[in-house]
Amino acid sequence: MPELPEVETTLRGIKPHIIGRKISEISVRNKNLRWPVSKRVYSIAGSKFNHIKRRGKYILIDVNDGTLLIHLGMSGSLRIVECDQEFRKHDHVDIKMDSGKSLRYHDPRRFGCVLFHLGNINNHKLLKHLGPEPLDEEFCGEFLYSKSRGRNVPIKQFIMNAQTVVGVGNIYACEALFFSGINPKRLASKISRERYNKLAENIKMVLQSSIEMGGTTLRDFVNEVGEPGYFKQSLMIYGREDEQCNKCSKAITRIIQTGRSTFYCSSCQR
């Protein structure tokens, strides 16, 4: 699943191609995504792309009096292509621009969305309950510590909860916990303020490093020009079951938590 760095990489890739461009035509080839493509999407023809930003894993594009809300789901991607480029099997939404290029949404599993919201996008039901952005200043160890009091859930589950902090997906949660020396099974309420300070710093570090490298290479993820990301080669713990820990040489353990694989070192992470 594309996580925050993949979404940020996509945003940065498409931004120079769309901002200020006039939308000439909308084509929806399959409206049946996770939520049906909003009929209001058609209303943006003739408008301009004014601004683009990210909220968690959502890409938000301001178009006149409303906002396009796009989620890449489990396998989606956004590409900039020539308007006359042949459609691929799972190209579902095509937004043609006056530049002769299209912003094209591709999603084999159809678990993402392309919606349109009039008014303040922060009031949208998908966004209004989200926690802070992990790369913003307000996100810090003190915030995590105060939020975790009385939370008797494993720390990995706690930091992956979008109401705690957005965008800390499975890969990056494993990596940040490894760098912080925290066992992913430890209860959130049992972790000290000092360790939360370290964890917040490492969440920022891991995400920022991945953004700079173009995102993590996942089976279905490609960036805006169809190339995979480049972060997987730098992963310290994720996906390395039974391999030697780079710190202590002990074999890395894999367990399942809330239906997801968790990788950790039982020696380095307490």
Describe the secondary-structure layout.
Elements: H1 4-18, E1 23-28, E2 49-55, E3 58-63, E4 66-71, E5 77-82, E6 91-97, E7 101-106, E8 113-118, H2 141-148, H3 155-160, H4 170-180, H5 193-213, E9 253-257, E10 260-264
Antiparallel strand pairs: 1-6, 2-3, 3-4, 4-8, 5-7, 6-7, 9-10
Helix pairs in contact: 1-5, 2-5, 4-5
Structural notes for this entry:
By secondary structure, the protein is α+β, with helices and mostly antiparallel strands. The protein has two domains: 4-123, MutM-like, N-terminal (N-terminal domain of MutM-like DNA repair proteins, Alpha-Beta Barrel); 141-264, Helicase, Ruva Protein, domain 3. Helix content is 23%, strand content 22%. It has five helices and ten strands; from the N terminus they run H-E-E-E-E-E-E-E-E-H-H-H-H-E-E. The protein has helices at residues 4-18, 141-148, 155-160, 170-180, 193-213; strands at 23-28, 49-55, 58-63, 66-71, 77-82, 91-97, 101-106, 113-118, 253-257, 260-264.
